[in-house]
Design brief:
Distance between the termini: 24 Å
Order of helices and strands: HEEEHHHH
Radius of gyration: 14 Å
Largest sheet: 3 strands, antiparallel
Number of strands: 3
Strand order of the largest sheet: 1-2-3
Number of domains: 1
Helix content: 40-55%
């Protein structure tokens, strides 16, 4: 378990895919109002596949590391593959147990990315309770 906690800290201290994309296909921002964690995500999509993702954010180690880890996982996935991801998928990627108080922190990245896509598709956005 310690090795997984080290991975989370590594992604927090040296986030992967952090930054901005010039001329992204879609972008969006999500805020966890319970704690103030924020993410802004840019996606570059080609032929319904995410070919690049960059993010900027501020918040706790779990929310930022989870976004970094998630970003590595969803680059080269199709839009549909990303839209079917669930809470348990992000927890599996994270590799550490996270208490109920950190539920929204872990999901902030997934919620942000999925809502960017849903907004572009003109479909209803997801809310926290959709992941329960």
């Amino acid at each position: 378990m310690d090795i997984y906690a080290q991975n989370v800290m590594d992604h927090y201290k040296c986030p992967r895919n952090q930054g901005e994309i010039d001329n992204p296909s879609m972008s969006g921002k999500q805020v966890n109002r319970s704690c103030g964690d924020t993410l802004v995500v840019d996606l570059k999509v080609k032929d319904d596949k995410i070919i690049d993702l960059k993010f900027q954010g501020q918040g706790c180690a779990i929310s930022q590391a989870a976004m970094s880890i998630l970003s590595e996982s969803i680059i080269d996935q199709t839009i549909e593959q990303v839209l079917i991801l669930k809470h348990k998928d992000v927890l599996k990627l994270l590799g550490v147990e996270v208490g109920q108080r950190r539920f929204k922190c872990v999901l902030l990245g997934l919620l942000t990315v999925q809502n960017i896509i849903l907004r572009k598709q003109k479909k209803p956005e997801r809310v926290w309770n959709d992941f329960v």
